[in-house]
Amino acid sequence: MTSLLLALFVLLPARARAAEIYCPASVCERGVLPKGLRWRANDADPTWADPRAQKGGTLHVYDLSFPLTLRFVGPDSNDDFRPYVLGNHVPLTYFHPNTRRPIPGLAEKWAFGADHKTVYFKLNPKAAWSDGHPVTSSDFAYGLEFMRSKFIVDPWYNDYYTKEVSKVVIYDERTFAIVSAKKRTDRDLLYDAEIDPQPRWFYTLGPTWAQDYQWKTAPNTGPYQITTIDMGRRIVLTRKKDWWGRDLRYFKNRYNVDRIEVSVIRDQQIAWQYFMRGKLDGFPLELPSFWHDKAKGPEFDKGYIKKLWFYEDRPLPEYGMWLNMDYPLFKDKNVRLGFQYAMNIDKVLKTVLHGDVERLNSNTEGYGPATNKTIKARPFDLALAGKYLDKAGWSKFGPDGIRVKDGRRLTAVVTYGNPAHTERLVVLKQEAKKAGIDLQLQLLDDAAAFKTMLEKKHEIAYSGWAPQEEPQYWGQYAGVNAHKTQTNNFCNIDDPVLNKLIHRFRGAYTDATKDALARDIQKRIWESACYIPTWKQAYFRIAYWRWLKWPTPPGTRMSDDPISYPLAEGEAWDGLYWIDEKAKAETEAAMRSGRTFPKSTVIDKVYKE
After folding, report:
1. What is the Cα–Cα distance from 475 to 493, expressed in whole angstroms?
2. Which band of pLDDT confidence, cut at 50, 70 and 90, is reported for residue 568?
3. Which of 177, 385, 497, 527 is most buried (most C-beta within 10 Å)?
4. Which DSSP state fits 291?
């Protein structure tokens, strides 16, 4: 069967839990709660959802490929579908998307120890798993045990939760502490010493864990649950009508649609046709060709479809090209430098991207004092490209204008997973030829492209990484993640100086020290020449049918495109939209009768710097 339809979610009654608290000695201990703790909570910051929001309806969105797994850890789990999974894991605390102060998640209160290593939590008594189990302290002890287990086949998590988190201390079923392995600021304790609870009654850890749970839907604590998998075609998430967090201050009037249907449409042009026929409710317009050229016509002029350009004020994604230093060609730094100067990013910005975006200078932009503003991306410079390639021994040219050495042509394969980026890469290919470089473009299915990069089978990885609350370097640039599969070190960089800087960064206690180390790390990455930064944009653009509604303003400082990511991974600003069924019926009737509405293009700069 090419399509297997699985109904996966049935809300089960809560099982009887064992009276004793689960607290294995390897990760946990029992304790007596210290006296004099200053418990904190935050129920005073402004809300950002809209009380006019309506419940109901189905949001129709698309993805370019079907996920390789529904696991959130383990092989092939870090793909484009991951936000839908992790978006339904409520953390202990969030950071408010506008004030950036801590706000409650699973925890209703928290406190900090005098040792600057311990953070205490009191769980919300309403917090519950999707199968009816209450969330308890034991679930966090198991969460730490789970993340350290070799059976999940995820070295990043294994390393992090072994080296960065020391233990869990349980005081009662709803009160516990997480002890960091090192001193941290209060803010970093909430962010870096966080543990996601795991359902011990659901998972059985063992040698075949990754295969056994490839397509199983685990219980979660968030507002939605995967209810249908139509293999290779679509995944449906359904809102929990009795979700425990629905009436809490920062969750109220959010997560409004009853269903989110994610269809696989492997061609963006075809997806656009689906959108124009009303089969998708919204469509991202990040590509200038869509915003400037495609998003026009009768449906827009008659007000059936609206356009939104929304500026954010947040850390920026890391887009670029990673040169695999385990590939023989890129072992030579002179070759890497030659490729750096042979990439005409500015021409792509001015032509293909219509000047709507800017050049990204480093892998850490938008992080305030942690951003090294002295670093500038290397420009397109044929003289410098030639200088370094000549120095590497690629000084001769073949009859087709491509450099040759020892009978080999100077060629490298660029692996990527989005056909919409082909036009950009074609320009880079044409311009690189002027330097005597032959770029071969390898377009794969999005999931297949990412898998190729994870398995380190790429020569040049053309990709991007979502921003984090603070800069992260260990996964992508630490030597412990080089020369092995299923890690994010796409450069395969293993530089002793950089490794020491990253180690010190992970152990830094003060913000000033971390910021200084972050700037040094960026400089060292720049000096390695293994990463070519490409472009940055501090906004999202979308087209949407007029029945899709947002608050005013339609987002927060930290908002991401709600059409591409209707559930944001591990953050608190998602789920603001709703579907107005009356407006939908009104629009469909108007299209039949010829009635029109005011044309609408909104450019919102409320958070623009």
Report:
1. 11
2. low
3. 177
4. I
Q: Which CATH architecture has domain 318-536?
A: Roll (3.10)
Reported residue count of the chain is 609
End-to-end CA distance of the chain: 53
What pLDDT does residue 7 have?
35
| Averaged pLDDT, 52-74 | 94
CATH superfamily of 22-50+89-212: Dipeptide-binding Protein; Domain 1 (3.90.76.10)
Q: How far apart are CA 77 and CA 68, in angstroms?
A: 7
Task: Give the span between the Cα atoms of 266 and 80, in whole angstroms.
Answer: 13
Burial label, 31 (beta-carbon count in 10 A; 0-12, 13-18, 19+): middle
Domain boundaries along the sequence of the chain: 22-50+89-212, 318-536
> In terms of DSSP bridges, do strands 224-230 and 234-239 run parallel, antiparallel, or are they unpaired?
antiparallel
Q: Where are the beta strands (DSSP E) in 82-117?
A: 93-95, 102-104, 107-112
Is residue 110 a contact partner of residue 102, using CB atoms and an 8 Å limit? yes
Residue 197's nearest CA partner among 122, 157, 140 is: 140
Which residues is 539 bridged to in the sheet?
Answer: 311
Percent of the chain with pLDDT over 90: 83
Q: Which two tokens stand for residue 131?
A: 């199968």
Q: Count the alpha carbons within 13 Å of 496 in the hemisphere toward its beta carbon.
A: 0
List pLDDT tens digits, range 95-154.
999 998 999 999 999 999 999 999 999 999 999 999 999 999 999 999 999 999 999 999
Could you tell me how far CA 273 lies from the centroid of its own chain? 27
Element (H, E) at 354: none
* pLDDT score at 314: 85
CA distance 220 to 129: 5
Q: Measuring CA to CA, how many Å separate 105 from each of 39, 53, 223, 280, 498?
A: 15, 21, 12, 31, 35
- Classify strands 234-239 and 175-180 as parallel, antiparallel or unpaired: unpaired
For 413-433, the pLDDT digits (tens) are 999 999 989 999 999 999 999
pLDDT tens by residue, 511-562: 899 999 999 999 999 999 999 999 998 899 999 999 999 999 999 988 888 8
| Model pLDDT for residues 264-301, shown as the tens digit of each residue | 999 999 999 999 999 999 999 988 889 999 999 999 99
Do 529 and 389 contact (CB within 8 A), yes or no? Answer: no
Amino acid at 451: K
Euclidean distance between CA atoms 343 and 385, whole angstroms:
9
Instruction: State residue 574's pLDDT score.
Output: 80
